[in-house]
Amino acid sequence: MVSTSFPWLTTLILLPLVASLFIPVLPDKQGKTVRWYALGIGLLDFALSVYAVSSQYNFQNSDFQLAESYVWVPQVGINWSVAIDGISMPLVILAGLVTTLSMLAAWQVKEKPRLFYFLMLVMYSAQIGVFCAQDMIQFFLMWEVELVPVYILISIWGGQKRLYAATKFILYTAIGSIFILVAALAMAFYGDVMTFNMHELGLKQYSLPFELLVYAGLLIAYGVKLPIFPLHTWLPDAHGEASAPVSMILAGVLLKMGGYALIRMNIEMLPHAHAYFAPVLAILGIVNIIYGALASFAQRNLKRRMAYSSISHMGFVLLGIASFTELGMNGAVLQMLSHGLIAPALFFLAGIVYDRTHTLDMDDMGGLAKKMPTTFALFTICSMASLALPGMSGFVGELAVFLGFTTSDAYTATFKGVVVLLAAVGLIITPIYLLSMLRDMFYGKEGKAVVQAVVLDVKPREFFIAACLLLPIIGIGLYPKLATETYDVKTVAIASHARNAVPVVANQTFKDQPQFSIAEQPPFGIAPKMPIANPELLGMVR
Amino acid sequence: MDFASLAVQLNAGTIVPEAIVLITLMTVVVSDLIIGRQASAQWTPYIAIAGLLASVVALFYQWDVANPISFIGEFNGDALSVVFRGIIALSAATTILMSIRYVIQSGTSLAEFITILLTATLGGMFLSGSDELVAVYVSLETLSISSYLLTGYTKRDPRSNEAALKYLLIGASSSAIFLYGASLLYGLSGGETRLSTISASIASAGLAQSIGLVIALVFAIAGIAFKIAAVPFHQWTPDVYEGSPTPVVAFLSVGSKAAGFALAIRLLVTAFPLVSEQWQLVMTTLAILSMVLGNVVALAQTSMKRLLAYSSIGQAGFVMIGLILGTDAGYSSMVFYLMVYLFMNLGAFTCIILFTLRTGTDQISEYAGLYQKDPLLTLALSVCLLSLGGIPPLAGFFGKLYLFWAGWQAGAYPLVILGLVTSVISIYYYIRVVKMMVVKEPQEMSDSVKNYPPTDWTLPGMRPLQVGLVSALIATSLAGIFSNPLFTLANDSVLKTPMLQQALGRSKAPIAKQMAPTISQQLSLQITEVSTKKAVSLPKSMVHS
Question: CA distances (Å), B163 to each of B14, B239, B242, B260, B480, in order?
């Protein structure tokens, strides 16, 4: 590991947190100083993260970089250890970008500005902390620190049903996080050495049942966050009720914490269980894609429609994770990044529309295109990106996932065919609901809310925010290497790591129960690598 | 025999901290008598606080004492007792900080309040180190009787009277039960009163598996469980907490509870190692019940003090996890949690006192919109409550983490998982209060908050409250992140305590040895057990038929 002289990551994590502590004592009138202060801190942290990555980070190295480790509570074995690699580095940058932009988007927060920016800065720290943490307990701590700020942000600055949404959010996430702590303790105490260091935990040799159990627990915890189908119900409420800047962070960064943790822990630390669970993930991914898309089509509330669309898009991440291929893994990360840019942009634009029309009900909208031409253009671009129009980042991500899954040799052809077919169905529903959303909002007769409202088009500040998100979307779409090159080595490493576990599993099952693995091949289970790779053996057994 | 040599013989140096508290107490009483109420109220509380802090300093020097056993085995000033005595003294000092304004405003005499509180502190401190049945009982009663007096201190308030009466009745019966248990121990051990010799005498008398010992254990646990408010001995808690003066509740929930835990460790570990499986089973049951009932019933509370009453029951359940484990980490996590609990719970009570003083109510719904009027109070109460709920990075999170860590290390998986589930439940009701204060909009403000007077910190007795509030806030927010010294303290207190080390070393091999020769007795006992059971069940069946 490359040791650096300056503790970059610790600075990145602690800067917003420490800065937030000064907010209560800032001299301030009507929240103007506070917002400049918070924005300045956000920009500074973002600039620092970009600088740290560009100057200290080696893109061709799949190891952890910028690593730091300090003893924190040795009695319990907790260390403050941070490092970034190809998976976490882009997400750190994304978190910085989205959070800073959302603070800019919240420029007109009138109510309790001090509290708002205080919570935003705490969230900023926690997000970066989650992506950088290399110690399970530190990770859990950062994960939980996020909880209360989001709760308060939703329940003060949210819509009509904000209290319900906030409570649902906190209960789901808190219950989910029990599993993280239990898994952390279980893995830490497994074997002879007690450690919470993720890297060392990944090196431990767990027994298969134990690994499956821990995997299932973590899947529930991160499935709540990502979200995965039966655990998703908090999301439409939370994203629908939160104010636009908070929704931007929720959809842009918080969902990625789930995907990131799945890759970091479930795949990197528990590859053998992943070999068993991957088909389940693929199926859940399909369910997410189709269910999310159909449910989204049924929504008349603008933000709820986008929230379900997020669920649908996260299904591709699951598919990519389950693919066992370099391309699929690459696509999963790219899909997270791309959704991390598109979803905030859409939520932000929805916030603009709400700001002007004071409604989120699409039945009351219509004909907005005439009054808000620039918003219309921006909204259309974002929707196109979201429905994966070629040339936009969404397309590249989803294409990579598809290609990865199709070329995967870990599944039977039938299974792959069904999965890809169903995912393609989801891909068809996506334009339906997004285009119908555009039609209802911008075309046709002017709706109730539009007629009454004095409608102004986007202000320069708002245009700037949208542009900041759209530029990378188009940039990545036109030249995907821009993003993929930064993490490619790492996803290749992870994919091969996960792939390596498959033959091991096949071997095991083969050795233990030869009858089972050949004769009773589970319909969409892992087709054991062994028979495919080794046709002689297959023939011999038969 | 002159005094000095007597003191040396008795090794009286170990009780210097208690002596300091005693002298402070006498000073407060006498100066109150000489100078008069009005004048003395100006400075007696500060003398008391200074005395308690001096006592903590004295405890610091007791840390590495060579010979902790004093008064011919009555008192054991080992490291564990030092930590517990420190917790109790600190909690008393904080209680005085928060009580000055409260007592002045309630129109009662301050010096008497402080005197009784210091007596209770003295009882608690002695209880933490008592190593002998008589000393245990006397200090337990000192603590209890002063607590009854304290709960009824605002004598014109009928609810306070009710609380005192309830507490007295239940407390008296529980100490009677405890005394009976102690007398059984005395009898079984053939006239031993020192805790450390009791188990050896019982074992050598061949009564290691006798029913009498189990009964003594159950009775002793009943007494302890009453002090730490473990379910099902908790019924007094909500009523007493609701009715008593709030500073008293603060002391009961921290100081008195810590003393109870100190007694629990010492008594169960030294006097009942022969039935350690049984007491672990009983305490596990109590812990499960406390965690579940405390945290679930708290969900339905509308009064802040009742909420904290049930939450403290739940918290006691968490701490009991550490007690049951019987490992180094288990005991240290208990000590650590109690230290952290001291800050966060007393901080919460300070906030409640401030609010009650300003508005005269402690209904949770009356806290609505407090953020607009008093951000400092809102911040402090939110931080303390969230810390109680175990939200990182506050102190309570690290406390719970250590408990659960120790639990997992010892293999108590179901307990840890239950603890985690119930602490998620607890987050719900703690955050409900936070939500009430922070989230409500100006138009949803409660009447009390609308008429909320601006804070005047210059009123007599307000400055100490402010000091208490701010220090609790700082301690609760930072004690977790910089918890290394506290962890070290907690671990050392266990490692340096011979009694625990002996028990931990012993709990593996020698108990098995002691068990071996008694197998035949065990068999015969089982037979008698069965026959007694039959004898008991017979009348029932007769009734049914």
Answer: 36, 6, 8, 20, 35
| Beta-carbon separation of A152 and B438 below 8 A | yes
Nearest C-alpha in B relative to A145: B392
- A76 contact B CB<8A: yes
Any alpha helices (H) in B390-496, and if so which ranges?
A: 395-409, 413-438, 447-450, 462-481, 484-495
Task: Report how far residue B443's alpha carbon sits from residue B118's, in angstroms, rounded to the nearest whole number.
Answer: 45
Which are the contacts of B36, defined by CB distance < 8 A and separation ≥ 6?
none
Pick the residue with more confidence: B40 or A330? A330
Q: Is the pLDDT of residue A515 over 70?
A: no
Point out the least confidently predicted range of A4-8, B59-63, B185-189.
Answer: A4-8
Pairing of strands B75-76, B69-70: antiparallel
Q: Whose structure tokens read 């907790």?
A: A78
Question: Does the distance separating the beta carbons of B409 and A194 come in below 8 Å?
Answer: yes
Q: Percent of chain B scored above 90 by pLDDT?
A: 54
Q: Which residues of A touch B379 (CB under 8 A)?
A: 24
Contact A73 B483 (CB under 8 A): yes
Report whether B168 contacts B148 (CB < 8 A): yes
| Chain B positions in Cβ-Cβ contact with residue A76 (cut-off 8 Å) | 401-402, 405, 487
Q: Which residues of chain B does A166 touch, with a Cβ-Cβ cutoff of 8 Å?
A: 435
Q: What count of CB pairs under 8 Å joins A to B?
A: 78
Q: Which residue of A has its CA nearest to B382?
A: A148
Task: Please name which of B272, B260, B126 lies closest in space to residue B185, comparing C-alpha atoms.
Answer: B272
Mutate to test the interface with B, among A13, A18, A72, A76 (most CBs of B within 10 A): A76
How many residues make up chain B in this entry? 545
Total of domains in chain B: 1
Residue B318: name the closest of B349, B348, B340 by CA.
B340
Give B5's contacts (C-beta < 8 A, 6+ positions apart).
none
- What pLDDT shows up at residue B538? 39
The pLDDT tens digits for B306-327 are 999 999 999 999 999 999 998 8
Comparing B284 with B442, the larger pLDDT belongs to B284
Quote the CA–CA distance of A22 and A19 in Å, as a whole number: 6
pLDDT at B284 over 90: yes
A189–B contact, CB cutoff 8 A: yes
Q: What angle do CA B193, B196, B202 make, to 5 degrees?
A: 70
Q: Is the pLDDT score of B193 beyond 80?
A: yes
pLDDT at A104 over 70: yes
CB A148 to CB B386 under 8 A?
Answer: yes
Chain A contacts of B404, Cβ < 8 Å?
Answer: 181, 185
Tens-place pLDDT, residues A480-501: 888 888 888 888 888 888 888 7
Contacts of A156 in chain B (CB under 8 A): 438-439
Partner B contacted by A170 (CB < 8 A): yes
In terms of pLDDT, which residue wins out, A434 or B541?
A434
Pairwise CB contact (< 8 Å): B416 & A174: no
**Best mutation site among A79, A110, A185 for testing chain B: the one with the most B CBs within 10 Å?**
A185
CB of A178 within 8 Å of a chain B CB? The answer is yes
Listed in sequence order, the residues at least 6 apart from A260 whose beta carbon sits closer than 8 Å to its beta carbon are A87, A88, A91, A130, A131, A336
Model confidence pLDDT, tens digit, residues A174-233: 899 899 999 999 999 988 888 899 888 888 888 999 999 999 999 999 999 988 988 999
Residue A285 pLDDT? 92
Under a CB-based contact definition with an 8 Å cutoff, are residues A441 and A362 in contact? yes
B519, pLDDT greater than 70: no
Residue B231 domain boundaries: 3-542
A193 touches chain B (CB under 8 A): no
